[in-house]
């Protein structure tokens, strides 16, 4: 199975775990929030950005996005963030379906403490919007998805591409370049195969 498909399969599993926890806990992001998105220090792996990069290449938008990414300071706000989301968008992410694991887990996942017990890491905006719900959800921390578990699964998909954290825009740029290079090699091989026949 292609690596991007394996990443998307993992994302589907993360989404399922988050949805199950949201159902049990009642915890939700405030309507139309997106306050976590403009943070300038979001760190992800190149592997996590491969699905978004592949989609950009599929749409024929990769070159435009590479130019936009090159013009940004690092670290900077995620270029996929949409200050004014489209009515059909699931949030402020213009690539919501292809967003990285951190974005899928943020606000609804736990971290393991030194004792081995999980502690729910709830976004401050969720806590402000629903303090009682956040406190009740914290009691269910052992049932929440875990950041470390997801990171380990990402690493297991590809120990080279799934290890090094970098600013999200840098990871997206490298992912576009990597997918584009692979696509270019594939097209060259196909061209050579066709000319040899």
Task: Describe the protein in words.
With 197 residues, this protein is mostly helical. It has one domain. Helix content is 53%, strand content 7%. The chain has 8 helices and 4 strands; from the N terminus they run αβαααββαααβα. It has a two-stranded antiparallel ribbon. A hairpin with a 5-residue loop joins strand 2 and strand 3. The longest helix has 29 residues. The chain is globular and about 55 Å long. It starts with a helix and ends with a helix. 32% of the residues are buried.
Question: What is the secondary structure topology, with strand pairs?
Answer:
Blueprint: H1 3-25, E1 43-45, H2 46-59, H3 62-70, H4 101-105, E2 109-112, E3 118-121, H5 124-129, H6 131-138, H7 147-157, E4 165-167, H8 168-196
Antiparallel strand pairs: 1-4, 2-3
Helix pairs in contact: 1-2, 1-7, 2-8, 3-8
| The number of domains | 1
Helix content: 40-55%
What is the β-strand count? Answer: 4
Rough outline:
globular
**Structural class category:** mainly alpha
Q: Please state the average pLDDT score.
A: 86
Number of helices: 8
Distance between the termini: 29 Å
Features:
197 residues; mainly alpha; two-stranded antiparallel sheet; 8 helices; 7% strand; globular
């Amino acid at each position: 199975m292609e690596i991007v498909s394996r990443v998307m399969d993992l994302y589907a599993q993360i989404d399922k775990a988050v949805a199950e926890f949201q159902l049990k806990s009642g915890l939700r992001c405030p309507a139309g929030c997106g306050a976590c998105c403009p943070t300038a220090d979001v760190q992800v792996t190149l592997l996590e950005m491969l699905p978004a990069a592949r989609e950009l290449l599929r749409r024929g938008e990769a070159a435009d996005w590479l130019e936009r990414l090159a013009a940004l300071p690092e670290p900077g706000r995620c270029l996929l963030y949409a200050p004014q989301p489209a009515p059909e968008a699931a949030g402020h992410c213009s690539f919501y379906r292809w967003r990285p694991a951190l974005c899928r887990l943020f606000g609804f996942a736990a971290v393991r403490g030194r004792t081995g017990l999980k502690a729910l890491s709830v976004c401050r905006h969720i806590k402000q919007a629903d303090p009682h719900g956040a406190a009740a959800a914290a009691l269910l921390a052992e049932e929440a998805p875990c950041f470390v578990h997801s990171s380990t699964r990402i690493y297991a998909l590809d120990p080279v591409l799934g290890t090094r954290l970098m600013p999200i825009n840098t990871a997206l740029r490298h992912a576009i370049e990597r997918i584009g290079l692979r696509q270019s090699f594939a097209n060259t091989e196909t061209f050579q195969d066709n000319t040899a026949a």
